[in-house]
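User: Quick one: structure for sequence A, then sequence B.

Assistant: Sequence A:
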Amino acid sequence: MSEPVRVLLLPDAADREGEPRPALAVPGHRLPLIYPTLAAALQAKRELEAGHGQT
């Protein structure tokens, strides 16, 4: 079984309001993929898991 795509909150990459930025830890990628909103990260996660994501 392959590793799942994980949602992360990165406090060291805070936005203007000081909130941690959402990111995805994708198996096979060295660095997490950072997104502007949690909604965008969750949508990308769904697309990756469905096999439609481009990374």
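Sequence B:
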Amino acid sequence: MQSKFRLAPLSIIMLFFLQLALLSGFTPRLVLAQAKAGSAELAMLSERWPCREARASELRSGLKELHKVVLWHTFGNSTECLQSYMSDPNFKTLEIHLINEVCQRHQNCGEYEFLAGLSVDEYDRKLIARDAELMKKLDGYFSGAATFLAQYLKPHTQCFVSPGLESNLSIEAAKVALEKVKTHFPQCKAVWNPVGNSRHASPIQGTIFEMHGKNPDVKPPCIADLDGTDIHFPARKPVMRRKIQSSKVPEYFERYRQCEHVFLWVGEFNGISSPDNFIDPRERTNFPSPQTFDLVYGLLAEQQEGGGTAR
């Protein structure tokens, strides 16, 4: 009885201040959770990546938080740019895709790729069978990225790790690869990123479900990434056939606001100059200009300014 008596005056006081606020013109606004807006700069480990231009553009654009995606090993092994982010207190998210499964599907993997010489079916079967040679190779390959994170990852950065970019694997095989991820990267969230047209493109319990493109079919916990769908700005034509108008990007953010992250992508983030001419990833030079960085980061800055509280 005594506690109820004490609550009554407090309730009256709260109502009084609410009425006073309404009379003064204040309108309460419902603040909703939203996905963290970032960029899938997959080619960042290329020795030709324009890191200085990217960092300068981030300052010009007024980005308050930095959320990045990179592809390990494919474009190169130059980690200097990524290291510069790791020490930045505004660097809040790093996602690493460990293996390039896109080249395996297209049968154009360079000799340096983890999957060089392995077909989609062979890789799948060997994972399911836990082939000793493949397991040893995976452990050695994953340990390189794990060692890098152990040395440079700071408490202010949350990490996500995917065993394969746009994976061709069956669910059964993917679970084996994800077990390896969880073993080598216990401090990070494991991500399952199947290729969109796969019959295995469904969530796996205990992982973040990531899909790419203009209309990925995902539900939380999830990541939506434009990778493969270029952004068409009035001041910049897309280099890919699949595109989304820059004016529609806010709708993309809104549609996937319940995901962990939404990542933007343009063809230059993979060093692509034309969808028709394949160039070895380590030979590519068509990386973003300062203007392209400004356009993409400007969209991210607008989203950070206009949204509610981060998830």
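Residues 2-23 form the longest helix (22 residues). The chain is about 35% helix and 15% strand.

User: Thanks, that's what I needed.
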